[in-house]
Fold this sequence. Notes:
The protein is of the alpha/beta class. The chain has helices spanning 19-34, 47-58, 90-99, 111-125, 143-154, 172-181; strands at residues 6-10, 38-41, 63-68, 83-87, 103-106, 133-136, 167-169. It has a single domain, classed as Rossmann fold (3-Layer(aba) Sandwich). The longest helix is centred in the N-terminal third of the chain and has 16 residues, at 19-34.
Amino acid sequence: MRSISSVCVYAGSRLGRNPIYKSTAEALGRGLAARGMTLVYGGGNVGIMSAMADAALAAGGRVVGVIPRFLEEREIRRNDLTEQHTVATMHERKAKMAELSDAFVVLPGGLGTLDETFEILTWRQLRLHDHPILIADIGNYWGDLFRQIQRAVAEGFAPPVEGHLFERHETIEAVLARLDTLAAPARADALGRA
């Protein structure tokens, strides 16, 4: 059984108002580096995603970025990453990030983070992959999202999902501890991983 070696993190391209978002992202970057896990992220030099990449690199970690060509100026393409992929579209970005990863972590973020999160959750629901998805509910940031998902289940629009499609964790320490116990997906799947 192979352990998790690469983790895709969806995170905000802004810092947010509460400093805990940045410090949490930095703690995740350091934690992944300390475990020898590659950080895969959107490749930009903005927001908490950049703070996370900075922390991982400073801790000697491996960091892989994936950025669409049209966002290279807006999100400021980084040239200091271990590996940087430039793709044509947002769709290609999400597919490439997924292809390179054994697990997914969701940090606070905006509409782009929601888009990435729902796409990877939907892919799992459709059995296109069986990669773990850990949602870091820092300061109850995602509380309303979980309530909406519960309502969709209660109203018959979705099957029960928490625990099956994703895990909710309230601290980065809990996320990192859980990553330590998980095995990487063993089967080949639609994401191209074996």
